[in-house]
TrEMBL record:
Tagged with keyword Calcium: no
Membrane topology: Multi-pass membrane protein
This protein's GO CC annotations: plasma membrane
Protein name, per record: Major facilitator superfamily (MFS) profile domain-containing protein
All copies of domain Major facilitator superfamily (MFS) profile, residue ranges: 29-416
Short name of any one Pfam family annotated for the protein: MFS_1
Lineage: Eukaryota, Fungi, Dikarya, Basidiomycota, Agaricomycotina
Chief location bin: membrane
Gene Ontology molecular function terms on file: transmembrane transporter activity
PROSITE patterns: MFS, SUGAR_TRANSPORT_1
Keywords recorded for this protein, A-Z: Membrane, Transmembrane, Transmembrane helix, Transport
Biased amino acid composition, Basic and acidic residues: 431-451
Residues spanning the signal sequence: none
Region spans: Disordered: 431-458
Amino acid sequence: MQPTREFVEFEVDDKENPRRWNTWFKGFIVVWICFNAFTITCYASTYLDAVPYVQELFHVGSTVAKLGFTFYAGACGIGPLFLAPLSELYGRKWVYVGSALGWTAFQVGAARAENTATILICRFFAALLGTASFSNAAGTIHDLSTPGLFQSSSTMLFCMALFMGPVIGPIVSGYIVENTTWRWIFYAAIIAGGVETAVFAMLPETHHGIILMRKAARLRKEQPEYDHRSSFELERPSVVEALRITATRAGSMLISDPIILAISLWQTTVFGIIYLFFDAIEESESRKAGGVRTPERRLKLGLLGAIIVPISLLWFGFTTYTSVPYMVPIVASGFYGFGFLAVSLSTFYYTIDAYTTYAASAFAAQAMIRSVATSVFVLFGTQMFSGLGPRWATFILAMIGVVEIALPIVFMRKGEALRKASGFASLEAEHDHVDASSDEEKQSVDDEKQVWVEGQTA
């Protein structure tokens, strides 16, 4: 006689449910992930202060030396493509640990490098392996909370960490180079990475499917007369299927999903320009729109940012005359920072709300375009501004920004239709996670599972 099949779900006020953990503890998890993201982006731009020393020591030109930045930024867009699906299939914790450890190990190689090739290779693989927080932070935030203040605050903090890193990086590296040597840029990274790896190893798993799968395994040992299973366990793909998903999911979203493609291009412009200005400030929005919580409500802030970006660029470019007080373009760059962060927050919130469970893969797809495209900005930025002059160079960027104002308007008007056209977003709308916070919701989940069991045993 076969054991009776029993599905395992979180009970009401289940202490194993990450959403029921202490708020301060959940906050610490988010802060630590944000710190990791900050570290990764910070060390993208810190390398630029090492470029003159790499040129002199290894006798290479400026463009070759700057490839250390290009390789790093490009790899930041590739790494999440396999790190995101791995976290969705095998949990968050050990992906974070392995990612932080890999990033730290290749910093050691870069610190001890005796030629340019070693630096370029180590920089590439450090970013390739170290960017788990770029994509998986969205999944972790979803694990820990439902839409509300905590989720909104966590997303805002993550955006600030992700995009403030390039701003703080030159300050950190400038201090290091002034007081020690350029190699201490990498030694400092090793220290930070080692601490992050150790803390990640002590944090618990947050992936609901993995937690429930382990709970089911524990219950099978305690109650052998029942075949305890989680839905995640039954739906979890084989290793071969997992590799296929790893290779194709984010890429498929990138190619076939107009939302992901458009948002990626939108983010790319403002993200790339930030490496030219190194300025940003913060703002966020998280309110209901008439009681209807659609992802498109997030785009109001993005529309404001999209309008501010070209205005601030024109302001900056055409006030760079020597006759204009220096504070005028500096204030303009501050307004650009506001517009930049407004777009970033808006698109990050929108992606989480629209893709929920698949948010990690969505972030990975966006990161691939954003990082690969912006990796070349540092190579042509100097030539562009010196060749065209600051006024016409920023004018071109501003005109691109003007065209992109149409994106949030289109999304706000046609967003629902676009999400229906997206297989990933529409599936999420149909199979959204139900948090067992009430007896009625719990009963609804149980009823659905019972129907599934009856269908399997019929």
